[in-house]
Specification:
The complex is a heterodimer of chains A (123) and B (595). Chain A is an alpha+beta fold and 123 residues long. Chain A is built from four helices and four strands. Helices cover 40% and strands 18% of the residues of chain A. Chain A has a four-stranded mixed β-sheet with strand order 2-1-3-4, with helices on one face. In chain A, a hairpin with a 3-residue loop joins strand 3 and strand 4. In chain B, the strands form five sheets. A five-stranded mixed β-sheet of chain B has the order 10-9-13-11-12. In chain B, strands 2-1-3-4 form a four-stranded mixed β-sheet, covered by helices on one side. The longest helix of chain B is centred in the C-terminal third of the chain and has 18 residues. In chain B, helix 7 packs across helix 10, helix 17 packs antiparallel against helix 18 and helix 18 runs antiparallel to helix 19. Chain B contains 24 helices and 17 strands. Chain B folds into five domains: 102 residues, Glutaredoxin, CATH 3.40.30.10; 210 residues, 3-Layer(aba) Sandwich (Rossmann fold), CATH 3.40.50; 84 residues, Ubiquitin-like (UB roll) (Roll), CATH 3.10.20; 89 residues, de novo design (two linked rop proteins) (Up-down Bundle); 56 residues, 2-Layer Sandwich (Alpha-Beta Plaits), CATH 3.30.70.20. By secondary structure, chain B is an alpha/beta fold. The chains are: A alpha+beta (123), B alpha/beta (595). At the A-B interface, helix 1, strand 1, helix 3 and strand 2 of A face helix 5 and helix 6 of B. The structure holds flavin mononucleotide and iron/sulfur cluster (2 copies). The site of one iron/sulfur cluster has 14 residues of chain B, from helix 23. Flavin mononucleotide binds next to strand 8 and helix 20 of chain B.
Chain lengths: 123, 595
C-alpha cells in the first residue's frame, strides 16, 4: 500500500493551495482598509476588523484583501475604506460591527454602495 | 479565526548569521505576549536574495518590506503593524507614504529578475512539505509517474534545452539518455551540492529555501533512467542546508514521495545524504563519485563518463543543484515554455551570487541573455561608494574578467566563452578601481593551487610555477620574459591536466592579461601598481603640507613607524612601515598618500 494515494494528494493540494493563497497578494483587486489609529481603536475598530475578516472568510471572497492602517484620520471613526475596480474608492464612517457585515454583503457581494454610511473625505 | 497578517522572515544562511532565527522566535513570542498569535502567522522562509539589506522581514497583506531588522524590532512590528496597523516606517526599505491599496513601488533589485529556480525561496516555509505541495510541489512527479514514459521525460527535457548549471553546460537530456540506455539494472542519481567557488552560495540558498524541489527532481530522473537510489553530496560546512534536506526527506518519506511504491505507481526510490569535507576538487564529478565510494576524492580519466560508468561502476546521472531545481518546472509547464526563455544558445534562467564592490549584493536570478550591465547597474545598483567600475569575474577560479567594453554582451554559455570567461556555477565578483588585476589573478590562482589534488604534474607543478611568476611581478621583480613564461606554463596546464581544475586554473591570469596588459606592464616596467594594492610596489608618505600634526596616525600605527611632534608634520619611517594602510584610513586630512 502506498502511503499516500493520488486522490489523497489531490485533497491535500487543494486544501493547502487554499491556505497559501491567502498569502498571495497578487491578483487581488478589491481592498478593504480599516482605520486603526488611536481614535479608531477606541471607537471599536478592532471589532469591526474582526467582523470584516470573519464575513469575508465566510463569503469565500478571494479577490479581497483586508488590511489595516494607522493613516486615516477622521472624526467619524471607525472608518472603513473600500477600494474596488467597479466603484473606485468609497469611504464609510462610524462603522459598527453590523455595518461591517452589511459592507461585505451589500458592497462586496452585491456591488451596492451603502449610501447611508458613506462619508466624504478631503484628500 | 483567519490570519490577518503573515510575516515572512528570511531564513537563509546569510540572514541566519544575522539573527533571523532570533527574529522569528521573538516575533512569535511577542505575538503571544500581546495576545494576537491567532491573528498572525510567522513563517521562516528561504533566502529573499536581497542579502545586502538582510535580515529581511516581509509583512503581508500590506506587502511591507522591512530591511536590516534586528531581534529587538520584533515587538514594534507586532505592536505597531499587526495590532495598530501602522507600518514601522524606520524599517521600511521604501519609506514614501502610500495608500494601502496602492502597489508597493517596485524595488529595483527585483525588477529584472525572473524566478524559476528560486520560485519558492522566500515564499514558503521550507520545513513544511504542505507549503511546497501548495505550490505545485510533487505535481511533476505525479505527472511523470502516471502520465509519462521515460522517453517522454527525456523528450521534454530535450525540448526545454536545459543545460547543466554546474559549470560546463552539458545538455541534461543527453546525460539522462546515456544512463537510460546503458546496460544494467542498478543505476544511480546524484546531486552535486559541493559548491566550492569563492563567493558562491546559489546552491546552498536553493537547498535551504526549497529542498523538496531537489528531491522531486532526483526522483523524476530515477524513474526516467531506471534508478532506485539517489545521493546528495553536500559539504559539511552547510549545516542549515543539510538540516533542511533532512527534514524534507523525512516528510517526503512520511507522505510516500520517497520509499516504496511511490503514490501507488509501483516505483521505488530512496535518497541519502553524503557529506563532503569541503575540498573544491570533490565538486568535480569523478572525484565526487570516488568520495561517495569512500575513496580519496581524486578525479579520474574520462571517458568512461559517469553517465555510463559511474558510482561503483554503474550508470550514474550527476547534476548540479540548480539544474535539478529546474526540472519540476519543466515537467509542469512544458519544455516548450522553458525553451522560450533565454537565448538561442541557453534557455531558462541563471542564478548568480553578486558580491564584491557592488551596492546591492545578493542572490539574483535572471533570464539567460540578460546583459552584465543590467545585472551590475539595474539590479546591483552600481558600484559602491561612488568608485569606478573595473571588471567582473564570472566562472570563479575557472573563469575570467569581463570589462566595460563587454558589459553589453548577453550572458549565456557561448557568449561568456567568446569573451574569454565562462558561466561557471554563478559566482559574480565585481571589482572597482581599487582592485589590482594582477592581485586578483593571484587570488584565484592561489585558490586553485591550494585546492589541487596533486595527482597530475601539469596542475601541481604548473600552478606553483604560475604563482611564483605572478608573485615576482607583484613584488616588482618581474621581467618582460615573465609574460611569455606565463603563457607557456598556462598552455602546458591547459593541455596536460587531467581534470578541469588544472585545465582552467590559468584562465583568470590569461583573461586579465588579455584585457589589462597595461596593468601588467606597469608592474613590470615601471614597478608601479596603478591601484596601489601591491604592497611591495607602494609607499605610504605623509604630505607635509597637508599634515596638521594631530598625531592620530602615529597612535594607530601598529608598528610605530610614524613619528613627529604635536602640531608639526609627521613622517613615516619606510624601514619600519609594513604598509598596512591604517594611517591612510585614520587621517582625516587626507595627508597620507600612496606613492
Ligand atoms: C574542480 C571542479 C569543481 C567542480 N565543482 C562543482 C560543484 O561544486 N558543483 C557542481 O555542481 N559542479 C561542479 N563541477 C562540475 C562537475 O564536474 C559536473 O560537471 C557537474 O556536477 C555536472 O552537473 P550539471 O550537468 O548539472 O552541470 C566541478 C568541476 C570541477 C572540474
Ligand atoms: S588537474 Fe589538478 S586537481 Fe585535477 S587531477 Fe590533476 S592535479 Fe588533481
Ligand atoms: S593623522 Fe594625518 S594630520 Fe594627523 S598626524 Fe597623521 S598624517 Fe598628520
Amino acid at each position: 500500500m502506498p502511503k499516500l494515494t493520488r486522490q489523497e494528494l489531490d485533497k491535500i493540494r487543494a486544501r493547502e493551495e487554499e491556505k497559501l493563497k491567502k498569502r498571495d497578494i497578487h491578483g487581488k483587486t478589491t481592498h478593504v482598509v480599516v482605520g486603526m489609529g488611536t481614535q479608531g481603536i477606541s471607537a471599536g475598530a478592532k471589532n469591526v476588523l474582526n467582523a470584516l475578516s470573519d464575513e469575508i472568510e465566510k463569503a469565500g471572497l478571494e479577490n479581497v484583501i483586508l488590511t489595516q492602517t494607522g493613516l486615516i484620520v477622521s472624526d467619524k471613526a471607525p472608518v472603513v475604506e473600500v477600494f474596488s475596480p467597479e466603484k473606485g474608492l468609497v469611504v464609510y464612517g462610524n462603522v459598527s460591527v453590523k455595518d461591517a457585515q452589511r459592507i461585505v454583503k451589500e458592497h462586496l457581494l452585491e456591488n451596492k454602495i451603502l449610501e447611508d454610511k458613506r462619508i466624504q473625505v478631503e484628500e | 479565526m483567519a490570519y490577518k497578517n503573515y510575516i515572512l522572515v528570511c531564513g537563509g544562511t546569510a540572514c541566519e548569521s544575522s539573527k533571523s532565527e532570533e527574529i522569528y522566535k521573538n516575533l512569535i513570542a511577542e505575538a503571544k505576549a500581546l495576545g494576537v498569535e491567532d491573528q498572525v502567522q510567522v513563517v521562516l522562509t528561504g533566502c529573499f536574495g536581497f542579502c545586502e539589506q538582510g535580515p529581511i522581514v516581509k509583512v503581508l497583506p500590506e506587502d511591507s518590506f522591512y530591511v536590516q531588522v534586528k531581534p529587538e524590532d520584533a515587538k514594534e512590528i507586532i505592536e505597531e503593524h499587526v495590532i495598530k496597523g501602522r507600518e514601522v516606517k524606520r524599517l521600511l526599505y521604501i519609506k514614501e507614504e502610500r495608500k494601502p491599496y496602492e502597489e508597493v513601488e517596485d524595488i529595483q533589485f527585483y525588477n529584472k529578475q525572473l524566478r524559476i529556480v528560486l520560485r519558492n525561496c522566500g515564499v514558503i516555509d521550507p520545513e513544511n512539505i504542505n507549503e511546497y505541495i501548495a505550490r505545485d510541489g510533487y505535481k511533476a512527479l505525479e505527472k511523470v509517474l502516471f502520465e509519462m514514459k521515460p522517453d517522454d521525460v527525456i523528450e521534454e527535457v530535450k525540448t526545454a534545452g536545459l543545460r547543466g548549471r554546474g559549470g560546463a553546460g552539458f545538455p541534461t537530456w543527453m546525460k539522462w539518455n546515456f544512463s537510460k540506455v546503458a546496460e544494467g539494472d542498478v543505476k544511480y542519481v546524484v546531486c552535486n551540492a559541493d559548491e566550492g567557488d569563492p563567493g558562491a552560495y546559489m546552491d546552498r540558498s536553493t537547498l535551504e529555501g526549497d529542498p523538496h524541489s531537489i528531491l522531486e527532481a532526483m526522483t523524476i530522473c530515477g524513474y526516467t533512467i531506471g534508478a532506485h537510489q539517489g545521493y546528495i553530496y553536500i559539504r559539511a560546512e552547510y549545516p542549515l542546508a543539510i538540516h533542511r534536506l533532512e527534514v524534507a526527506m523525512k516528510q517526503s518519506r512520511e507522505y510516500g514521495f520517497l520509499g516504496k511504491d511511490i503514490l501507488g505507481s509501483g516505483f521505488d526510490f530512496n535518497i541519502e545524504i553524503r557529506l563532503g569535507a569541503g575540498a573544491f576538487v570533490c565538486g568535480e564529478e569523478t572525484a565526487l563519485l570516488q568520495s561517495i565510494e569512500g575513496h580519496r576524492g581524486m578525479p579520474q580519466p574520462r571517458p568512461p563518463f559517469p553517465a555510463v560508468k559511474g558510482l561503483w561502476g554503474k550508470p550514474t546521472v550527476i547534476n548540479n543543484v540548480e539544474t535539478w531545481a529546474n526540472v519540476p518546472v519543466i515537467i509542469n509547464k512544458g519544455g516548450k515554455w522553458f525553451s522560450e526563455i533565454g537565448t538561442q544558445d541557453s534557455h531558462g534562467t541563471k542564478v548568480f551570487a553578486l558580491t564584491g564592490k557592488i551596492k546591492n549584493s545578493g542572490l539574483v536570478e535572471v533570464p539567460m541573455g540578460t546583459t552584465l550591465r543590467e545585472i551590475v547597474y539595474d539590479i546591483g545598483g552600481g558600484i559602491a561608494n561612488g568608485k569606478r567600475f573595473k571588471a567582473v569575474q564570472t566562472g570563479g577560479p575557472s573563469g575570467g574578467v569581463i570589462t566595460e567594453e563587454n558589459l553589453d554582451t548577453p550572458i549565456d554559455f557561448g557568449g561568456l566563452q567568446r569573451i574569454g570567461s565562462m558561466m561557471g556555477s554563478g559566482g559574480m565578483i565585481v571589482m572597482d578601481e581599487d582592485d589590482c588585476i594582477v592581485d586578483v589573478a593571484k587570488f584565484y590562482l592561489n585558490f586553485t593551487v591550494d585546492e589541487s589534488c596533486g595527482k597530475c604534474a601539469p596542475c601541481r607543478i604548473g600552478g606553483k610555477k604560475l604563482m611564483n611568476l605572478l608573485e615576482k611581478i607583484t613584488d616588482g621583480k618581474g621581467t618582460e620574459d615573465d609574460i611569455a613564461q606565463i603563457k607557456k606554463v598556462a598552455l602546458a596546464m591547459q593541455k596536460g591536466s587531467l581534470c578541469a581544475l588544472g585545465q582552467t586554473a590559468p584562465n583568470p591570469v590569461l583573461s586579465s592579461l588579455r584585457y589589462f596588459p597595461e596593468e601588467y606592464e606597469a608592474h613590470i616596467k615601471e614597478k608601479r601598481c596603478p591601484s596601489g594594492k601591491c604592497k611591495k610596489l607602494i609607499r605610504y608618505e605623509i604630505n607635509q603640507d597637508k599634515c596638521i600634526g594631530c598625531t592620530a596616525c602615529a597612535r594607530k600605527c601598529p608598528v610605530g613607524a610614524i613619528s613627529g611632534e604635536v602640531k608639526h608634520p609627521h613622517k613615516i619611517n619606510q624601514e619600519v612601515c609594513i604598509k598596512c594602510g591604517v594611517c591612510k584610513q585614520t587621517c582625516r586630512f587626507s595627508a597620507v598618500e600612496i606613492k
